[in-house]
Specification:
With 209 residues, the chain is of the alpha/beta class. The chain has two domains: 123 residues, no CATH class; 84 residues, no CATH class. Helix content is 25%, strand content 12%. The strands form two sheets. Strands 1-2-3-4 form a four-stranded parallel β-sheet, with helices on both faces. A two-stranded antiparallel ribbon has the order 5-6. Strand 1, helix 2 and strand 2 form a beta-alpha-beta unit. The N and C termini lie far apart (40 Å).
């Protein structure tokens, strides 16, 4: 957790400055991937005003801690006033391994909390499928003329599988244009809701495209 603490302490003044400089009605969204979500959630959850962040999105999260920044070991993070969204690909081994990391000998300990388990968190899919039909209805086997959306095949953000970061082999990624994950993130930023419904039509057929 030491690196997440250091990162959160650095991220805090940046987000506070952004909040002060942004228009009063601006909506601020922070997207954190892997250990970046650990860092971002720690920074926002430790501040009384949540640093002006309206939306927190975790993708492939390595897990969160419930202890807030500072010297008080009993202080806890609080995300009140911030909308939480989270997704982990079914094929993402590394994110789950990060949450399974055993308690370490340092004071901050582990980061085993799945952001999708937080109260009020909205989970969204990353396992491929179809965007809504052109008439706005949900895709079905009989009618699916929306854009095909790729699955996120591992832990990477762009065309990376579940091997060490940098390895490629399957198209897709949490932030890859054309993936279900990216489409949902874009829609959350624009409307406050994911684009697709959980386990929508086509989720099991991503490998056929």
């Amino acid at each position: 957790m030491d690196q997440a603490v250091t990162g959160a302490e650095t991220l805090t003044p940046f987000l506070r400055g952004l909040d002060q400089a942004a228009p009063h009605d601006a909506v601020t969204t922070v997207v954190g991937h892997s250990y970046g979500s650990t860092t971002a959630f720690l920074a926002v959850g430790s501040a009384n005003d949540n640093l002006g962040v309206d939306n927190l999105i975790a993708i492939g999260s390595a897990g969160l801690t419930d202890r807030a920044l500072g010297d008080d070991p009993d202080a806890r993070v609080d995300y009140a006033g911030t909308n939480i969204y989270a997704s982990t690909s079914p094929e993402d081994f590394w994110a789950r391994k990060g949450r399974w990391a055993p308690e370490n000998p340092f004071a901050w300990g582990a980061h085993a909390i799945d952001p999708g388990s937080l109260d009020g968190a909205v989970s969204f899919d990353t396992n491929g499928g179809f965007a809504p039909n052109l008439d706005g209805t949900a895709p079905t086997a009989q009618h699916h003329d929306g854009e095909p959306l790729l699955q996120t095949p591992g832990h990477g953000t762009h065309d990376e599988g579940d091997f060490p970061i940098g390895s490629t082999g399957h198209p897709g990624g949490y932030l890859q244009e054309g993936s279900e994950s990216f489409a949902n993130i874009v829609n959350i930023i624009g409307t406050g809701s994911p684009l697709t419904t959980p386990d929508g039509y086509g989720s099991d057929d991503w490998w056929l495209w």
